[in-house]
Amino acid sequence: MTLPQLTMQSVPQGIETAADYRLLAQQQLNAEVWRYLEHGAAQGLTLRANADAFEHVGLMARPLANVRGGHTRLQLFGQQFEHPLLLAPLAYQRLFHADGEQASAIAANAQSGQMVVSSLASQNLEQIIEAAAQPLWFQLYWQGDRARTLRLARRALSAGYSAVMFTVDAPVKQALMSLPNGIAAVNLEPALPLPGLLAGQSMVFDGWMAQAPCGDDLAWLREQLNVPLLVKGILHPDDAASVVAIGCDGLVVSNHGGRVLDGVPASLHLLPDIVQQVAGKAIVLFDSGIRSGRDAFKAMAAGADAVMIGRPYIWGLSVCGALGVAHVLRLMRDELEMTMALSGIAELADFKARLRH
Asked: For residue 268, is it within any domain?
C-alpha cells in the first residue's frame, strides 16, 4: 500500500481545546467556505438550540469513586475502538485542506477511532479507505432511484467499507455554495433530472420529493445489504420504532447540525425518548452539537452508545491537516475521560447502569 503524500504541518502553540482551533480555522479559510461550514439553515434556530441544550445540562461531581483502570473502549458491530468519538460524514473536505478526506481517515485510525465517509466526499472512496488502513463506514444518500443508490452502496462495500449509514433527513442535498474548480462529489453519477410536472403539480411534492426515499425504500435497502445498516436523521420515537422494525442495526439521533429543517428541537432534548423507544434493540448514536468531551459525556449520559463530531474536526483539518484532526480527537477524548473520572464513571458501561437506576 502506498500512503498519500500528506502536507507536513505542526500543531500551533497554545491549543488546549478543540474550540481553540475554531478561530485559527476562520483565519485560514475564505469567507464563503467558512460560512458554508459554520452556518445553519435559515435563521440558525436549530444550530443555536443544539449549543444551548448542552450548555443547560449540568454535571454532578462524584468524589471517592474508584475509577482506577478506567477507559473509554467500546465495540460497535464487531470493531473495537479506544473511544466513542466518531468522525461524522462531512462533504467536500478538500474545501478545507488539500489532503481532504484522506487526512481525516488517517487521523481516525491514528487515534484508534472511526470515520464515516460522506457520499459527497471530494476524493475517491477507494483512496480514502486505502489511506485509513482500516475498514471505514460509508454514509449513503439516496441517489434518486434504487438502482443508482445500490450501485453506490456496492461500490463502497467492494472497497472495504464495513457499515452503511443511510441519511434520510436531507432528501435534496446540494452544495450551499459554488464549489471551486477541482472540488466535486467525485464518487457520484450525474444527477437525475427532475421529473416533468403536470398542471397543478408541486415542484416540492411532485418534483424534488419524487426522488426522496420512503419507508419502502429503506426496507428494500435493508434486504440488499449484508452489512450493518444505520439510519441517520431520526428525531421522533415513532420513526425510531419503524427503523428498528425494518431490521436496521442502528440509528443516529441527528438534526443534521441544524443545516436542513430550521426550527426542529435540539437533538439532545430528543435523545432520551428515542433511547427508551429503542430499548437496546439497536445501536443509538448521537449527532449535532458536540463541541467538547464534556458534550460527549452529556450525550452518553442521556443514553447514546457513541457520538459523532462534525465541525470541530474540520477546524483541526483546516489548520493542520491530519495532525489537526488527530489532535482534536485526542483533546476531546482527554476531556471525556476527565469528565467521566470526576463524575465517578470508569467506563462507558457505567452510563447504562446509571440510566437503569
From this structure: yes
Q: Is the residue at 306 inside a domain?
A: yes
Domain span at residue 94 reads: 20-173+209-356
Task: State the catalytic residues.
Answer: 256
Which DSSP category does 115 fall into? B
Q: Does the structure show a pLDDT above 80 at 339? A: yes
For residues 219 and 209, give the distance between their C-alpha atoms in angstroms, rounded to a whole number: 18
> Would you call 70 exposed, middle or buried from its count of C-beta atoms within 10 A (0-12, 13-18, 19+)?
middle
Phi, psi (degrees; rounded to nearest 5) at 74:
-155, 165
Instruction: Give the model confidence (pLDDT) of 129-165 as tens digits.
Output: 999 999 999 999 999 899 999 999 999 999 999 999 9
Half-sphere exposure of 290 (CA within 13 A, CB side): 32
What is the structure's pLDDT at 8?
62
Q: How far apart are CA 140 and CA 308, in angstroms?
A: 16
Domain count for the chain: 1
Residue 255 covered by a domain: yes
Domain presence at residue 15? no
User: Angle formed by the axes of helices 125-132 and 100-110, to 10°?
Assistant: 30
Query: Residue 343 belongs to a domain with what CATH number?
Result: 3.20.20.70
In the chain, count H helices and then E strands: 12, 10
- Grid cell, residue 41, equals 439553515
pTM above 0.90, yes or no: yes
